From TrEMBL:
Alphabetized SUPFAM superfamilies for the sequence: GroES-like (SSF50129), NAD(P)-binding Rossmann-fold domains (SSF51735)
CDD domains, alphabetized: double_bond_reductase_like
Stretches that traverse the bilayer: none
Residue intervals of the Oxidoreductase N-terminal domain: 13-118
Keywords tagged on the record: Oxidoreductase
Organism annotation: Carpinus fangiana
Protein's name according to its UniProt entry: Enoyl reductase (ER) domain-containing protein
InterPro entries registered for this protein in UniProt: ADH-like_C (IPR013149), ADH_N_2 (IPR041694), GroES-like_sf (IPR011032), MDR_fam (IPR045010), NAD(P)-bd_dom_sf (IPR036291)
UniProt superkingdom: Eukaryota
Amino acid sequence: MAGDHHGEEVRNKQVLARDYIDGNPKEEDMYLSTGTILLKVPEGSNAVLVKNLYLSCDPYMRGSKAKVKDRLFNSFAPHSPIVGYGVAKVMDSGHPDFKKGDLVWGVTKWEEYSLITMTESLFKIQHTDVPLSYYTGLLGMPGMTAYAGFYELCSPKKGEYVFISSAFGAVGQLVGQFAKLMGCYVVGSAGSQEKVDLLKNKFGFDEAFNYKEEDDLDAALKRCFPEGIDIYFENVGGKTLDAVLLNMRLRGRIVVAGMISQYNLDQPEGIRNLLTILYKRVRMEGFTVYDYYHLFPKFLDLVLPYIREKKIVYVEDEAEGLESGPAALVGIFSGRNVGKQVVLVAPE
């Protein structure tokens, strides 16, 4: 018990995992429960107690058949709240960098209130003239993924030909807009006609196609890129990557941010066209956003003015209430969401 101030004990609605999971989550892997929590950080602890406002649904929130050791955290553990990124308000703090009333984004839990001990993954929100939910996506981890992947690894130049798979996801929509702002020719693939239309009309992509409607991805890419591809921002892997390899230009770059098509397979699909890497001197590199968080201030300096000047647009799909979280999370693996999927837990 903390010193003299016991803090108020309140009910705490939670979404818990039944067990570790293999592959993509299903609704029955999660259940709702109500516990209680003290709105006080234990004496002598440097943890932070927060009220969660928004939770983020992201493709890494799944079980992995190979127990990946280099992950920052696992989202699913038996009878524990789901772990993921979110936006929260500080209620009590034992940490010098955070005080009561601060708004933060970072790794939290799927519940109304959380005691966060992993404070190194919390960022203080300084700019509140943009919607707070943006810090689960555009201004959070996916935004940083887009920024680091595009500017730090793609080495883009004006006029280059850029292809983005899963272009309507939180990462893809931003990479596409960065590329357009730089004067590149940009094409995206997505999984529905609605998304394709939005990519072209709302995000300013030069061309887009629905990969589910294309029998021959190589032909689709040749139609969109008669001159070939300089930069491929990889989010899906599998057949798409294989087709892209056939269309890469000399000294092209493939930057791997994710491979959502492969996450759930017992046997990953083979890639046949790797010889292109040799013939065309292609550079292919994977990265993780955790290595680039030190650039966060630089990222905000670039993106915030673009948002304020409406030069960057952003589409979110908001589910309301903690209880709608499981279905929202499951939905992103089949592309049911239109834009970045967030869960509103409590109004600001």
